[in-house]
Each structure stands twice: as structure tokens, then as C-alpha cells.
What does this fold into?
Amino acid sequence: MNPFMHKLKTVFFIVLLSSVSIIKANTISKAFSALKDYNYFEAKRLFEKSMKKEASAASFGLSVIYLRNDNPFSHIDSAYKYILRSDSTFQAITPKGKIVYLKYNVSQKTIDSLKNEIYNKAFDVYKRNNNITELNKFITRYENAPQYNEAIDLRNSLAFKETKKKDTYQEYLLFIEKYPLAKEVPVAKERYAFTLFQTSTKNNTLEEFEQYLLKQPKTPFLNKVENSIYSLSTINGSIKEYHAFVKKHPQNHNVEAAWRNIYTIYTADYKTESLVDFRLEFPDYPFSENVNQEIQLSQKTLYSVREKNRWGFADSIGNIVIPCTYEWVENFSEGFAECGLNGKSGFINKAGMLMIPFIYEQVEAFKHGLSIVQQSNKYGIINKNGKLIAPFEYDEIFEFSEGLAVVAKQEKYGYIDETGKVVIPIIYTKAGDFSEELAMVEIDGQSGFINSSGKIVIPCKFDWVEKFNKGLAKVKSSKKFGIINKEGNYLLPCEYDLLGEFAEDAIMVVKENKYGFADRQGLVFIPLDYDYTGSSMLSLKFKNSLVVVEKNKKQGLIDKKGVLFVTTKNFDRIMPFNEGLAAVQRKGKWGFIDEKMKLQIQYLYQSADEFNNSIAKVTDKSGKVGFINRNGKTAIGFLFDEACVFKNGLCTVVIEDKKGIIDVSGAWIIPCEAEQIAQIEPEVIRLEKNSKIAYYNIVTRQYFWKEEGF
It folds into this structure.
């Protein structure tokens, strides 16, 4: 082809392209012009007509139309659809074509700007509805929007609010599964665990807690679940329950406490045999070494001692085994001793270990494994593990009797059991200990009896009652005394001025200064023929089937048939027979007669006691006390101002307000130089002299510990 023809062909092609561009430009230009004039119908028609040949520009224009609110075509999702198309098709346009688009203000920058405007508007539209469905649409359709994460957070927040309204573990689990990346998931998991726990244990039964733990072994409420299983398994606090618990739930964190409770209950009396029996019965006890130590300690007696005004304990040979560091101490009871520091009380064991901290204002000795303690002027009860059994809410707590203790609150009385539970309401104005399954209570100044269930079994109709003893109780009504049985029936009507005490199944009854005797069936078997002067009530009891009676200021002895044992003589006073002799008084002097009424020891003494161990304490005319034998001979000289009766072969005597001890031969065990003497063990005596203390062993006849200055 010659050069001229080639040039002509090229020019023709350029003219052709220019013509096409002009045609295109005319349609797009008209569309953008219509858009500029807000002629949305025409602009939309022309943009749609241009879509095939000018997709990017036409899509841009349509996106603008759908974005705007001032036309009937407004639709944010359509605006988004077309801007995405504009963006994708724009990438395929030649650089020269992109330059041409600048006159329509279509560029990557304007596309991105319009896209962001659409994102903002779309988010506002979907957010305005404030529901999960609409936000999910935005999240699905606008995944590249900068508001995408904000929309997810807002959607999750709304979903969690709905979940919390329903507040079930199923809903929380559904939320966690549906929105695993939601920032609310940690809280949802907590709520799931909590609601699952509540639902699974709503009836608070042992079976529920056990099943829950089986299904949720890693529950965040493990501690609470284990505590509930423990308390429900041991609701009665019995050894059987505690042992069953440790066998069934060996991994429970309360197993150690259960074992210690078994030990505490079983060995409450702290007797060596109880400790040994415990070791045999529970060989799997995890603290067996402690038991072995306690067995050894239980056989030791420790004595309170003082050094430099501080107290501790020494053993029976005088070794101080618990240092003198305490402000005060009391004797050991059931293996625990009260000690004081900084004005507070606690307990130590025989190894000197602090078992109950110094936090109480007052404590009482342990009995049956329990101690009454005081804090903030209120009383409660603890066990040997220091656990609070009864709360600090009582004004008074009395000792347990037959498993129940009287408690006082706001001047009313009721009863708690050994678990601290109030079992009989605090409604009575007075209440007494249980005896033979009945206890005295008072309502409106009148007394009666209740049983251990709190039921009134004998109406409150008496002015006063005494506790039951061998099925009988003394009562008072209209200022007179009588006796009832446990059914509330009278054995003796309330018509007596005074009643004595039962001895050998007989009781003295007094009416109008006359006395006789009744038996336990209420029969007055000795008529009220004798003069009651109120002297020596002790002698007005049967002893060896005889009792003292008095008429016309003379005394004698009668048997249960009312027959006078003394038939030939009457005495000013007479004491019951003991060891075959009875002390008698005539004309102010005392002697002794035998059972044949023969005077065996002359009337020589100012006073006389009964024979005991073949000797009797008597007072001579000078007022000195000595001892005579059965022959009336002086067995122990008249040296003493006072003397006790012999006990275990020893007698405490007094000379010039100083005390000592003699044996039955009259030999001095301890001279009269002590201010106080007490026999605290069969072989041990505690003495106080010059306000100092010492301990003396009767067997070895030696002091084994003395305080400095004794």
C-alpha cells in the first residue's frame, strides 16, 4: 500500500472514533446534565441506556440518584450496588478514558468518596431501626464498610440484651454459639454458668448438687457446690453421716473437716479409751499420728502453775510442759484448757497448741465437745474445731441437758439443739433443764412441763415446779406443795407446807408444823404426828431404814412401819446410826449408843459427828476438835479449831485459820500453814500460802512443784 493510501485510511479511522465518542459523550453528558438539573427520571433513563457502553460512569450516576432522598428512586442498597459496579468497571478503563471521565467528576477518588457516603447513610438507615435483623442485613451487605465492626458490636449488644431478658442458660449458650467473637461472651459465659447452676439446683437437694457436679466437674461454683453437698450430706451432724460423706466424696474439699468432726464427736470426752476405740474403728483417719499423740496426752494430768505472774502448766513431776505465757488459765476439760491473752480467752490443747484463738470475751469449759462463748456481750456456742454452732445472738445460754440447751433473748427463753438450731421457740418467761425428757417452762407466771418437741404435756398452772426425778416432781400451788407424776397426776395434793427430799423411797411431808412421811406412790405411811421445828433437815431422811422423829422436844428413831426403834429412852437429839453407833444428846452433851440402845460412849462432848472408818469427829469442852475410836478413846488429839470428815484416808484440819492435812493415824501430812487446800486428784493436793501455790503428792509425800515464794 502506498503511503498516501495508508495516511488516508488512518485519518478515516480517527474520524470514525471521534464520531462514536461524540455520540457516547452526548448520551452520558445529557445524563449528567439531567442529574445536575435534578431531572432524575431523564437522568435515570439516560444512565440506564449508557450502561452497556459506559458502565462505570452510568453506574456512578445511578448510584448518586439512588443515594439521594429527593427523588422517588431513593434506595440505599441500590446506591451501593451501582457504586460497586462503577468501582469494578472503572478499573478496566484506559488511562485516557479515565481522563475523559474527569469532566463528569468520575474518578477513583469520587467513587471512593461516594462509596463512603453510601456506607455512612446505609449504617444510619440500618442502625435507626435498632433491631438485630436490620443490623444483620447491613453486616451481610456491607462487609467492607468501615462501620462493619461497629455494626457487629451493636448487633451483639442488642442480641445480648434480648438474651438477658430471657435469662436462661439455654439462651446464654445459644448466644455464645451464635456470636463466639462478641465482647459480651465472657459475661455470657458467667451468666450461663450461673443460670445453669441455679436451674440445676433450684430445689436445693443433695441429688441435684451431685448430678450437677457430675455433669459440670469444672464449674466455677465448685466450692459452693461442694459446700452444699457437704452440708446436705451431714445435716444431722452425726458420725455416720460424716463418714458416709468422706467415702462417697473423697475429692470434696470438706473431707478434712468431715474427718475432724468425726474425731471431735467420737472423742468429745477425751478419755483414753475413746481415743483408742476411735483409732481402731477408723484406721483410715488421715491424721493418725495426732491420735497417737492425743492418746499419750490424755493419760497425763497437767496442773496450772504460775511464774512471774504468768500462767502455764506442769506435769505430775513438776516439769513445765506448757510455758507460763498466759494471763490466766483454767483446768483442762475434754483435752482443752481456757487461757487468756490481752484480755481475751481462747483454748489450748495438752500439747500447748492454740486450738481456739484468743477472740472471746468469755468462754466456758468444753462439755460434750461444745463450749459456750461470748462476743460483744452476746453468747454463742463453738465446737472443738472452732466452728460456730450457735450464733452470737443470745443474752444467755445454759448448759445442755438431754441434748438441748436453754437460751435467752430479750427476756424470753427457748431451746436449741447441739447443732445450734432453735428447736423450741423462744417464748417462755422462764425455762429449765430437761430431766427425764421433760423440762419446766413458765408462761405468765405459771409453770408447767414441755417435752423435747416443745409440746406442753403438763399445763402451766403451778406457782413453782421442780424438775422430775425418778418419774416424780414437786410442785407448788396456792402456797402449798404437792407431788405429780409425768402424766401430770397428783400423787400428793398441793396441801403441804413443806416437802423434804426422797431418801430410801420416802419423803418428809409437813403440815401445820407436824411432819410424817410418804412413799413414792403418794401414800402417807407415817402419819403427821411429829413436831417439825426446822432443825437438821438432813436428819429427817431415812437412813438404813430408820429416821429421826421428834415429840415434845425429845427425839427418837422409827422404822418404815412407824415403830419406834428407841423404845426405852428419848433423847434431846439423835443422829442416824452409822457403823452400828448413833450420836445422841442429853442435857447439852453428846455420846454414842449402839443398836441395842446401850450407851457405848459417855456424854462428854460439845458436838459429835457419825462414825466413819471407825472414828468419829467430836468437840471437847474447850471447843477443840479431835477424833475418838469406837471405844471412846482419843484416836487423834484435840488440837484443831475445825476439821473436815475423812476422805480417802485424809482429813483437812484448821488451827488458827491455817489449814493442814492429817491421816487416820493423826500423823501430819501437811502442817497447818496453808490458807487454802484442795484435793484435786486422789493423789494430788493443791495448796495456797502467802498467795502462792504448790502441789503435793500424797503417795510420795513430797511437793512436786512450788511457786517461788511459797
Q: What stands out?
A: The first strand starts at residue 303 and ends at 307. The radius of gyration is 52 Å. Confidence is low (pLDDT under 50) at residues 1-24.
